[in-house]
């Protein structure tokens, strides 16, 4: 029998607000343990929460970007359960009135090959709600240590409908969601730093049927590949169980990324009764039209919309747009450069090939480095969009060969010098001086009368020998187009 | 003790004496410490008194005054705090074993305001554990005794705060009131105690019992002093989302311009059976006095009154079950030495750390919030709470204040009600609806029983109309000043 998986995702995204969800203390990653704390974060007696408006604004932004309905009132509930990573033993969250409802995420499935666009479709969202993050536990043999630096950070939970059916779709969903959230500037979505975390609800059913199978929740899917592998494993496990006639129990399982399997965490019977009730410490906050309108003005272009625009307006090849549009900073760089450069396609190719290569080399993690440096972005890199446009225009104008440009680019990236600086420094001005080139071409014809005769006799390829001689004589600095024209004129 | 001793003076008189240079804050604070050392063995109002810190604050106050930099009328005057209000570097036990070794690393907003006014913030005052109780018998550190009769309770939960003022150990104190925890002990100890409108005084730094009901308020011997302390601690606080943005007038100043006598409502539901005869007689005399001052009195009805106790015990316990979850043995609360694993840390630490009333209320509250019970208990209680609030809104269209007894009986004996939670809960029957409606209420001493026990009457006002309420209370109090009578200790 053929089976179909039904998958819904719960994605947690840490908002990049400066302060925590309900207090003034700052947010951050990699600080010494328990330094980003205060009486509110630690849940000391008497401490009270005060809502961070920036977090609400960022949530509205996400909701608008994903086409959700924004709640008229932002209301808070307490989710009660005991766990040492949670200082108050309740989490301030949103239960029956999430800040966003509905919405959708556009996803793209892999194409036949990297140059071909794959199929697009919408994955439906159930809701998005805002809550406070918990701390981080580290377990040792005898003890467990807890770090509350992360506790109280604003956390957005984006819940999809059970609307995906394969690990590929899950991967496409996460990629698209992440691109949109990063483009909106609400989170860096770095999974390694826990800024984006994912739980999956998975069931399988015979293909062609509509009833849902028993759902299993998978936790600890903390990398994009972990999500893909974990989902894939769990689908196979469930199909195998059904085929063996074993009952699937409704439970929560943990993905073990080292051993690559899931293990049971708790069953439905062990599920918490969270005793949700409205948080009496926080007043509901009205979200009026004016507020929503103000946020709507700051919305970025959605990555897939941008990609379509690049293809339609600039005629860029699919492969270039797909590389560009996964990175909004690269897009911003491209748009700045292409506004000044003569060829959008060449600009795109330079950005996705040469610039991206240099960036990724520069950002390669030095594992021996004492501390990680800030990543170099297209914006902070030494080659400005103006400088790249200048380089492209010199090629387009025939003043610089592509080969020389390719050689110069890494040096521009390393030194921050412009292409004209380097040309002057190295005396690389491409020879387009017709008189000088004509003399060299005439010499070449005189020195290789054999080739000249063959060309005149109709053997087109013979001209290459003459071109080679000219280029050798000019050390590659002659404009090939000018050389070609001059040789043909002299030989006619 | 000489009757001229500063301990028998009101804060208003002490403020004048300090201004006139008749006494220094250090002398006043010394007199207070001496009084505590003399009588607190009997009364046990104090859980802790940092004498060195109190004297240092007093010295600083005197230095300010000598430079002409006096901060407020309260500069140099000692104020005791119920041991649920955070003071930086001082213990905060909430009268619970579980917080035995905790010291607060920060000041509550009311503490900040008192310090900014120059008051000498001195003493941690006893209470029922986590403010749950009406007799201060639920303190893990032993009960407080009523200064008027050491065999009797001072009321609760702010029994330490009321007894300390009644015993003249401190001229002013702060308590917290969730269902009557300021007014009922004020009544039983013969002092003034006021619960402000919900949102008037910041709750930041008050160890929460029931967040939607808790409010900090003053204890004093006169209404005038209560006004002085209230205006110092009131005002909007950006650290408390439930605090109300409103300008605070000078309540004590406004007492000097009394308003025309208005209309006082007498809710018939509060004058039914269950009230002690002597209490009834004293309240009747109070009503008569108001009439003699030109006030009109009018019978009114608050028909949802009988819902208030059940509604309160659903809502308050639900909030408490969640608010007290943080006391878990993980971070700053005492951890059970018998704990073998994480679940043990919770169960055993809380089992050993909490007293039986706290456990009872956490269980009650968790039950009412449980899935399957939420709609029947918590949600219905919230709806009934709206009815109670609407009752008052209707009545306040016709009257300026509502007058009731504060408590059904004078101070009762130790053990009299502690074995029967329901009878104990009923001692808050006249005060609870005020909290559910979020209204201000004040208990003013209105005489003594034949055996010499104080009786208090309660005035309930409109939301944020503290000035009017204090004015009406003052009109009675200045003619009697029962709170100025001190017990023999």
What is the percent of helical residues of chain A?
Answer: 25-40%
Can you count the beta strands of chain B?
11
Count of distinct structural domains of chain B: 2
Determine the mean pLDDT of chain A.
91
The geometry of chain B reads as globular
Question: Given the helix and strand composition of chain A, which structural class is it?
Answer: alpha+beta
CATH superfamily of the largest domain in chain B: Amidase signature (AS) domain
For the largest interface, the chains and their residue counts are: A-B, 29 and 44 residues
Largest sheet of chain A: 10 strands, mixed
Tally of helical segments of chain A: 16
**Alpha carbon gyration radius of chain B:** 21 Å
Number of helices of chain B: 16
* End-to-end separation of chain B: 10 Å
Predict the CATH topology of the largest domain in chain B. Amidase signature (AS) enzymes
Biggest sheet of chain B: strands, sense, closure? 11 strands, mixed
Structural class of chain B: alpha/beta
CATH class of the largest domain in chain B: Alpha Beta
Strand order of the largest sheet of chain B: 1-3-2-4-6-5-10-11-9-7-8
* Low-pLDDT windows of residues of chain A: none
Topology, element by element:
The complex is a heterodimer of chains A (492) and B (489).
Chain A: E1 3-14, H1 39-42, H2 53-65, E2 69-70, E3 73-74, E4 77-80, E5 90-93, E6 100-101, E7 104-108, E8 120-132, E9 136-139, E10 144-147, E11 154-160, H3 167-183, E12 196-206, E13 216-221, H4 224-244, E14 251-256, E15 261-267, E16 277-278, E17 285-286, H5 289-296, H6 303-314, H7 318-325, H8 328-340, H9 344-362, H10 385-396, H11 402-415, H12 419-426, H13 434-447, H14 449-456, H15 463-473, H16 480-491
Parallel strand pairs in A: 13-14
Antiparallel strand pairs in A: 1-11, 1-12, 2-6, 3-17, 4-5, 4-16, 6-8, 7-8, 8-11, 9-10, 12-13, 14-15
Helix pairs in contact in A: 2-5, 3-4, 6-7, 7-9, 8-9, 8-10, 13-15, 13-16, 15-16
Chain B: H1 11-20, H2 25-43, E1 46-48, H3 51-66, E2 78-82, H4 109-116, E3 120-125, H5 159-166, E4 172-177, H6 183-189, E5 192-195, E6 215-220, H7 223-233, H8 251-254, E7 263-267, H9 277-292, E8 296-300, H10 308-323, H11 342-353, H12 356-369, H13 375-395, E9 401-405, H14 421-425, H15 432-437, E10 441-448, E11 454-460, H16 466-480
Parallel strand pairs in B: 2-3, 2-4, 7-8, 7-9
Antiparallel strand pairs in B: 1-3, 4-6, 5-6, 5-10, 9-11, 10-11
Helix pairs in contact in B: 2-3, 5-6, 7-16, 10-12, 10-13
């Amino acid at each position: 029998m053929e089976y179909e998986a039904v998958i819904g995702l719960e994605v947690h995204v840490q908002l990049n607000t400066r302060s925590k969800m309900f207090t003034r203390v700052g947010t951050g990653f990699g600080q010494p343990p328990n330094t980003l704390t205060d009486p509110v974060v630690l849940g000391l007696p008497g401490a009270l929460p005060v809502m961070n408006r920036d977090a609400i604004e960022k949530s509205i932004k996400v909701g608008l970007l994903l086409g959700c309905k924004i709640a008229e009132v932002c209301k808070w509930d307490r989710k009660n359960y005991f766990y040492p990573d949670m200082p108050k033993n309740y989490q301030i969250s949103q239960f029956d009135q999430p800040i966003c409802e509905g919405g959708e995420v556009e996803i793209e499935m892999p194409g036949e090959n990297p140059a071909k666009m794959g199929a697009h479709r919408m994955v439906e969202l159930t809701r998005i709600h805002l809550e406070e993050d918990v701390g981080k536990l580290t377990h040792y043999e005898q003890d467990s240590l807890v770090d509350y630096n992360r506790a109280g950070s604003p956390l957005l939970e984006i819940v999809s409908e059970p609307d995906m059916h394969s690990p590929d779709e899950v991967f496409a969903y996460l990629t698209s969601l992440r691109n949109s959230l990063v483009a909106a500037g609400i989170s860096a979505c770095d999974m390694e730093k826990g800024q984006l975390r994912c739980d999956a609800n998975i069931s399988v059913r015979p293909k062609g049927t509509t009833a849902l199978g028993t759902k299993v929740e998978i936790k600890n899917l903390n990398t994009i590949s972990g999500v893909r592998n974990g989902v894939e494993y769990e689908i196979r496990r469930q199909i195998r169980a059904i085929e063996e006639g074993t009952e699937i129990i409704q439970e929560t399982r943990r993905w073990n990324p080292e051993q690559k399997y899931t293990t049971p965490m708790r069953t439905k019977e062990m599920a918490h009764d969270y005793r949700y009730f409205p948080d009496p410490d926080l007043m509901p906050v009205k979200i009026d039209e004016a507020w929503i309108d103000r946020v709507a003005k700051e919305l970025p272009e959605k990555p897939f919309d941008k990609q379509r625009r690049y293809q339609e307006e600039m005629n860029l090849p699919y492969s270039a747009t797909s590389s560009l549009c996964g990175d909004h900073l690269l897009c911003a760089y491209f748009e700045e450069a292409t506004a000044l450069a003569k060829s959008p396609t060449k600009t795109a190719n330079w950005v996705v090939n040469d610039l991206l290569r240099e960036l990724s080399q520069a950002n390669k993690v030095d594992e021996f480095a004492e501390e990680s440096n800030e990543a170099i972005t297209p914006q902070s890199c030494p080659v400005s969009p103006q400088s790249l446009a200048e380089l492209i225009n010199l090629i387009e104008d025939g003043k610089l060969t592509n080969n020389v440009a390719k050689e110069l680019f890494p040096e521009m990236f390393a030194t921050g010098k412009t292409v004209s600086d380097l040309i002057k420094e190295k005396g690389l001005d491409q020879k387009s001086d017709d008189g000088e080139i004509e003399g060299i071409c005439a010499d070449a014809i005189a020195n290789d009368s054999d080739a000249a005769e063959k060309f005149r006799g109709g053997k087109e390829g013979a001209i290459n020998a003459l071109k080679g001689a000219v280029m050798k004589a000019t050390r590659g600095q002659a404009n090939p187009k000018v050389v070609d024209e001059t040789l043909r004129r002299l030989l006619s | 003790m000489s009757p001229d001793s500063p301990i028998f003076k009101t804060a208003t008189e002490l403020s004048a004496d300090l201004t006139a240079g008749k006494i220094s804050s250090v002398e006043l604070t010394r007199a207070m410490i001496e009084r505590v050392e003399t009588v607190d063995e009997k009364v046990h109002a104090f859980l802790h008194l940092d004498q060195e810190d109190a004297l240092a604050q007093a010295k600083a106050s005197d230095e300010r005054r000598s430079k002409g930099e006096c901060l407020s009328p309260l500069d140099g005057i000692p104020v005791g705090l119920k041991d649920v209000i955070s003071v930086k570097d001082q213990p905060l036990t909430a009268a619970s074993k579980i917080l035995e070794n905790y010291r607060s690393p920060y000041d509550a907003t009311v503490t900040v305001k008192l310090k900014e006014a120059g008051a000498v913030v001195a003493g941690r005052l006893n209470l029922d554990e986590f403010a749950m109780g009406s007799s201060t018998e639920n303190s893990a550190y032993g009960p407080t005794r009523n200064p008027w009769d050491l065999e009797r309770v001072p009321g609760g939960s702010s029994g330490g705060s009321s007894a300390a003022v009644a015993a003249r150990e401190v001229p002013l104190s702060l308590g917290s009131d969730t269902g009557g925890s300021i007014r009922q002990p004020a009544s039983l100890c013969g002092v003034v105690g006021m619960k402000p409108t919900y949102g008037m005084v910041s709750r930041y730094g008050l160890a929460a019992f029931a967040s939607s009901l808790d409010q900090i308020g003053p204890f004093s011997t006169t209404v005038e002093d209560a006004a002085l302390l209230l205006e110092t601690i009131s005002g909007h606080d950006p650290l408390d989302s439930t605090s109300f943005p409103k300008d605070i007038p000078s309540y004590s100043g406004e007492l000097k311009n009394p308003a025309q006598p208005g209309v006082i409502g007498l809710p018939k539901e509060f004058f039914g059976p269950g009230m002690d005869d002597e209490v009834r007689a004293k309240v009747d005399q109070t009503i008569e006095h108001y009439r003699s001052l030109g006030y009109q009195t009018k019978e009114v009805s608050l028909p949802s009154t009988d819902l208030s106790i059940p509604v309160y015990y659903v809502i308050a316990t639900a909030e408490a079950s969640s608010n007290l979850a943080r006391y878990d043995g993980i971070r700053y609360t005492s951890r059970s030495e018998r704990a073998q694993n994480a679940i043990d840390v919770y169960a055993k630490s809380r089992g050993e750390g909490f007293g039986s009333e706290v456990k009872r209320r956490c269980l009650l509250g968790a039950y009412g919030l449980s899935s399957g019970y939420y709609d029947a208990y918590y949600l219905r209680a919230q709806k009934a709470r709206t009815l109670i609030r609407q009752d008052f809104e209707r009545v306040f269209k016709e009257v300026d204040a509502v007058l009731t007894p504060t408590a059904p009986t004078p101070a009762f004996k130790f053990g009299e009600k502690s074995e029967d939670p329901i009878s104990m809960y009923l001692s808050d029957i006249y005060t609870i609806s005020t909290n559910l409606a979020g209204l201000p209420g004040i208990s003013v001493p209105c005489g003594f029983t034949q055996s010499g026990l104080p009786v208090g009457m309660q005035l309930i006002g409109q939301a944020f109309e503290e000035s009017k309420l204090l004015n009406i209370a003052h009109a009675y109090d200045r003619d009697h000043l029962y709170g100025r009578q001190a017990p023999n200790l």
